[in-house]
């Protein structure tokens, strides 16, 4: 069943009518509705193009959060072979909001790490909607350090509304864990590439995405705070999230201009959820290309490249 966003309701009506006609034809073989159904398909295709031709930042947030978008485990299953998941932070426990392990990408050994949101109610609860606790970030640190020790490139897949804000997480040192993960990103001497596959929320995303190369899917978002959170703080009204989304400059297109992101990965018309296989293939090609760009750099050059990239963001932001 297709899940439609609020702004897609006119599209839902047209596609629903086309499906009703085809269901009627399946029930009654003598009914010929194909011509009318094709006309509705054409109308739906035109409307889809019009809707996605110039999405507002808030609508991009909605698309980035679409429940049917491919998630981290979908990418791992499709793109990586010999995946061996690794669990635990060796200090407190396992956090299933963060998944990661050893794998091969095009027969090249890598470490892959990412946020997992889950697809249904049970898996979303299991993975805490992709909101990592301190042990999740400490697990990521452990895996990045292991990759550094064995000379393995690191690939991170970012998709989180933000770090988990609960009392227990704060008691176990959430901010310190995020800072350590960010520091580890900046200090390892192996190639580190990151892809924002959905939401890149706050420090919870920065802790995985302080990389040599950062790619964003066309309709992904990356920001210091969610539009709702920003609106609640600035206007004391979460309903002003549309204005906040405009002000935050959180789209891939904005972040390319600011130098935060290095490339945009095109999505199928209508978003990643409308053609998951094509999206996953495009992400795989982008990851391979980014790793190839870094393959000739030695340890010192990789660390210098990463640090200069982030130290230079302020100047690029002012210029933009």
3D structure, described in words:
This protein is of the alpha/beta class and 320 residues long. It folds into two domains: 6-54; 61-319, 2-enoyl-CoA Hydratase, Chain A, domain 1 (Alpha-Beta Complex), CATH 3.90.226. Helices cover 52% and strands 15% of the residues. It has helices at 9-27, 34-53, 57-64, 72-79, 121-126, 134-150, 167-171, 174-187, 202-209, 227-234, 241-248, 252-258, 276-294, 299-311, 313-319, and strands spanning 81-85, 98-105, 108-115, 154-160, 192-201, 213-217, 221-223, 263-265. Strands 1, 2, 3, 4, 5, 6, 7 and 8 form an eight-stranded mixed beta sheet that branches. Helix 4 (72-79) packs across helix 13, helix 8 (174-187) runs parallel beside helix 9 (202-209) and helix 10 packs across helix 11. The longest helix is centred in the N-terminal third of the chain and has 20 residues, at 34-53. The radius of gyration is 21 Å and the shape is globular. The model has no long low-confidence stretch (mean pLDDT 92).
